[in-house]
Design brief:
The chain is an alpha+beta fold and about 60 residues long. Helices cover about 10% and strands about 25% of the residues. The chain has 1 helix and 3 strands; from the N terminus they run H-E-E-E.
């Protein structure tokens, strides 16, 4: 991951162990926008997408 942060221009992120996993139907608030968590099994276990009814941004490195 440190190499990915460097390639994307992000500050180095230190590894951590989450104390809670996002579940299907949870919501996450970022600033004034609330995103719905949707479980979307894909190329990684626990893969989720974040959905909003507002115009949105997309990207692989958020």
């Amino acid at each position: 991951m440190p190499e990915w942060c460097e390639m994307a221009g992000f500050p180095r992120a230190e590894p951590f162990t989450p104390d809670r996993w996002l579940e299907d139907g949870d919501t996450v608030t970022v600033g004034e926008q609330t995103l719905e968590v949707i479980h979307c099994p894909g190329h990684t276990p626990g893969h989720v997408v974040f959905c909003t009814d507002r115009p949105s941004w997309r990207g692989w490195a958020m």
